[in-house]
Amino acid sequence: MEPDPQASMQVGMRVVRGVDWKWGSQDSGEGNVGTVVEIGRTGSPTTPDKTVVVQWDQGNRTNYRTGFQGAYDLLLYDNAQIGERGVGTALAQLLAPSALFLLAFLLFPALNRTFALILLKQSPDRIQGMK
What we know:
alpha+beta, SH3 type barrels, 2 domains, 2 helices, 5 strands, 18% strand, transmembrane, Mib_Herc2, transmembrane helix, ubiquitin-protein transferase activity, membrane
């Protein structure tokens, strides 16, 4: 089963032009950002299913394909709240120091005793068995 790109589109999300973009400078140029203001629905004459309406920061407002006709005009931009970090970023920040420590611990056995001293804040006499 393939993921549904539109399933993640919600009003308020920020977007940029995507892989199937063919609308010239409606977004006022590559790299400009817009906001999803309406999600398409079955039976709508103006915003059909698998489309969204975007209000571009530069002024234009129109609808774009998010699976309609098999095309995807938009990509999601970073939608995290200001000051918040995504789960992936937070997880990476938690794991990165631990992973580096483990790698150093395994690759450099001579440093094991030094790491233990630093981490455990023990005197060298108490860690004699680690040689």
